[in-house]
Every structure is written in structure tokens, then in C-alpha cells.
Design goal:
Layout (H helix, E strand, L loop, with lengths): L6 E8 L3 H12 L2 E6 L11 E4 L1 H10 L2 H5 L3 E2 L3 E6 L5 E5 L4 H6 L4 E4 H9 L7 E2 L4 E7 L2 E6 L4 E4 L1 E4 L6 H6 L6 E13 L11 E7 L2 E8 L4 E9 L14 H7 L5 H9 L4 E7 L7 E2 L2 E3 L2 H4 L8 H18 L4 H30 L5 H12 L2 H4 L1 H4 L9
Parallel strand pairs: 1-2, 1-12, 2-8, 5-14, 12-19
Antiparallel strand pairs: 3-7, 4-7, 5-6, 9-10, 10-11, 13-16, 13-17, 14-15, 15-16, 18-19
Helix pairs in contact: 1-5, 1-10, 2-10, 10-11
Length: about 400
């Protein structure tokens, strides 16, 4: 039964991760009738750290959850830096303290994914979230869309938003079926407790070490209580694609054994690392079909090399809610407008993130030296203006 304040179409969201919960929060805030269907029995966010650039902070502030989302986040005062793999030579460094606010009106933070999800969940009524609801089919109908779940229950909606990740079931109904592309890379991830981490890694900086065929990233999270570590290395086809798959500390160390001692010390200070294969999908020409649309990784999965996966889901959610709230009686038109606003930007980021895999992993030689020189000459913060300066509440097609 609808709340008296809710209006417009009945909206069903498949998936209760960061993108799905952000969409629910923005839609509820706009007074729209929304229900999240999440297959897990409890809301959890796997993984660990993420970067919240100004374009990600802006939607959180518009939603009214920035304070709670950032309470345990770490502002990157020291900033960004790129280092050479074998000796830590600084290739490029930029302080963000004061500069980010001046250029873009917000700071850049690092945060734990679970803390962000908790903040978004706080903006969604309990009755709007249905847990243990694994969607097994999406059926377009003359009067809307019907969802069927593993327990045999059904739900009818006027429109459906697929926020169900890389292997989205809704995507299979909206677009031509297509398998994700294997990158040939795997990612290692661990969180090192601050008490065990070397002092170097506790600085409020996002540090990227670049080397042949690999790169290594670390930054503090959880109010400085831990150091998020994520590293990328070659993988075989049989590497498992799962956030819950693990490696051993010895396997992780072996991939970076000849790197700078600061890297290997950080690896050995961590616990059992996660390891998963890295996949992506080519950009879709369209992600909307009738009363169904996609959001976040379901629409535009991208490599994590720009740290924009969560940010783009937040932007999607804000724009989608604005389009539907502006035109609630014509949801087909609202969804078309949402896609037209979002697709060019996310396509550009997908392509840029894919290209960075090659640039980050150049073997030592002329191309690597040219890359390193370019990093030293560039102003990465100003160069990121097209990313950080975007305001989802003001964007127009």
C-alpha cells in the first residue's frame, strides 16, 4: 500500500548495493514510490576501500547523508602520488588540501564501502527494502513489468531499475546478451590494520606504484584505522571472478617480490588477501527498453583505474530521480532523458578506464619513460576537471 506522500509510478529496483540504495534514497526523497529487491538476507558491502572524489561527494550532500557517509572517511590532504615500482621515485604528486575545494567545491576522501552503504541505507525507509529476494525473471507486460523471485513470489511495477551489478539479470532483458570480457588481470585486495602498517602508508594520500605488467595502490580508510591495499597483476583464465575468493599472503608477495621494500612490507603486514579476476563490458549503445533501465555496473561496468565506479552509480541515481520526479506521468520519456544525460559520460569513463590498464603496466623502456615524464609535467587535478566538476543535480543533456 502506498504512503500518502508517494506519487507517480511504482518503481522496483533490483539490487541493494551502493547504486540501488542510492537510487532508492533519491527516489524516496523525491516522493516517489520505490521498493528495493535485494537477494542477500542482510545488507552488506563486500570489498573495502573506495575513493570519493568531489563528483561523488556532491550527490551525498544533496541527499543529506554526507555527514554520516564521511564521518569515518579520510580526507586526502596529502593528495595523489605516482611512484616508480623498484625504488619509489616520485613520478607525480599533488596536494589536494585546499586545492580541491577551490577548484570543485568539495574535498576528495577515501572511505570504506560499508560505511557508504550504511549512510545511503539510512535514507531509505525499512518498508521499502525487501531482503532475501533473488530475482529470477523480468517480464515486460502491457501495463508495466513483472518480477518473479526464487521463492515463487511476484511483484508488479510500473518500471524497473536494474542495479544488480556486472552480471545483471535485468540487463539481459534490456540489451543483447553478452559475456563480460576477461582482462587478463587479477586484483588482490586486503586491509592492513594501522597498528601493523608502516608509517609511510598512513599518510593521507592515495599512492599508485607503477611497474611492468602490474600496479599497486594504497590509502588509509576508516578514520585512519586501516590501510586499503589493492593491486593488479597478470592472471590466468581460471582465476575466480568473485569478491569472496582468496589468495595467500605468499602468492600476493610473489607477484611483487622484486618491488620496493615499502610495497613488500605492506603486503606482508596484511591478512589473507582477496583475489578475483578483472572483467569489464564494452559500452552499451542503449541501456533502456520501455519501462526498464539500468544503473551503475549493470549499465556501465568499468575497470577501477579511475576510482569512479561508485561515483558513477551515485550520479546515475541522482539524475534518474530528477528525471522521474520532473516527469512522473511519462516514465518512458523520463527514462529516455536519463539515458541521454548519462550514457555519453559513462561511456567516456569506461573507455578511459580501459585505456589506463595499458598505460599503468608499460614495461620499462622508451614508452614507460615518456609516460613518467608526462605524469611529471601534468596537473592531474586540473586534468580531472571533466570528472570532478560534474554536478548530477544540474546536468542537462
Amino acid at each position: 500500500m502506498r504512503n500518502k506522500q508517494q506519487a507517480g509510478p511504482r518503481i522496483a529496483i533490483v539490487g541493494g548495493g551502493i547504486g540501488g540504495m542510492a537510487a532508492a534514497a533519491f527516489l524516496h526523497r523525491a516522493g516517489l514510490d520505490v521498493t528495493v529487491h535485494e537477494q542477500a538476507a542482510a545488507l552488506t558491502e563486500v570489498g573495502a576501500g573506495l575513493v570519493l572524489a568531489p563528483n561523488a561527494v556532491r550527490p551525498l550532500r544533496a541527499l543529506g547523508v554526507a555527514e554520516s557517509a564521511l564521518r569515518r572517511a579520510v580526507p586526502l590532504d596529502w593528495g595523489w602520488e605516482f611512484r616508480r615500482w623498484e625504488d619509489g621515485t616520485v613520478l607525480s604528486a599533488e596536494r589536494l588540501d585546499g586545492v580541491c575545494e577551490r577548484l570543485y567545491g568539495e574535498r576528495t576522501y577515501t572511505a570504506h564501502r560499508a560505511h557508504l552503504l550504511d549512510a545511503l541505507r539510512s535514507a531509505v525507509p525499512d518498508g521499502a527494502v525487501r531482503l532475501g529476494a533473488r530475482c529470477t525473471s523480468v517480464e515486460p507486460r502491457a501495463d508495466g513489468v513483472r518480477l518473479t523471485f526464487a521463492d515463487g513470489t511476484r511483484a508488479d511495477a510500473d518500471l524497473v531499475i536494474g542495479a544488480d551489478g556486472m552480471h545483471s539479470l535485468v540487463r539481459e532483458t534490456v540489451a543483447e546478451p553478452e559475456r563480460p570480457r576477461f582482462s587478463g588481470l587479477c586484483a588482490f585486495r586486503t586491509v592492513v590494520p594501522a597498528a601493523s602498517a608502516p608509517e609511510f602508508a598512513l599518510r593521507r594520500a592515495q599512492t599508485l606504484w607503477l611497474g611492468p605488467g602490474r600496479h599497486f595502490v594504497h590509502y588509509p580508510i576508516s578514520a585512519g584505522a586501516g590501510v586499503n591495499v589493492v593491486a593488479f597483476a597478470p592472471a590466468t583464465d581460471d582465476t575466480e571472478e568473485s569478491w569472496s575468493a582468496t589468495a595467500t599472503v605468499e602468492e600476493f608477495h610473489a607477484e611483487f617480490a622484486d618491488w620496493d621494500d615499502r610495497v613488500t612490507t605492506l603486503i606482508k603486514s596484511g591478512s589473507v588477501p582477496g583475489r578475483w579476476a578483472l572483467y569489464d563490458r564494452p559500452p552499451l549503445p542503449s541501456w533502456t527498453r520501455g519501462r526498464m533501465t539500468l544503473l551503475g555496473d549493470a549499465a556501465h561496468a568499468m575497470f577501477p583505474f579511475y576510482g569512479q565506479g561508485a561515483a558513477q552509480a551515485l550520479e546515475d541515481a541522482a539524475v534518474l530521480a530528477r528525471c522521474l520526479a520532473t516527469d512522473p506521468d511519462a516514465p518512458d520519456r523520463a527514462l529516455a532523458r536519463y539515458e541521454s544525460e548519462r550514457l555519453p559520460r559513462t561511456t567516456r569513463l569506461q573507455q578511459a578506464s580501459h585505456a589506463r590498464a595499458d598505460a599503468n603496466h608499460l614495461p620499462d623502456g622508451p614508452e614507460q619513460r615518456a609516460r613518467d615524464a608526462a605524469l611529471g609535467d601534468a596537473d592531474p587535478l586540473v586534468g580531472s576537471g571533466w570528472i570532478c566538476g560534474y554536478d548530477a543535480s544540474a546536468a542537462t543533456a
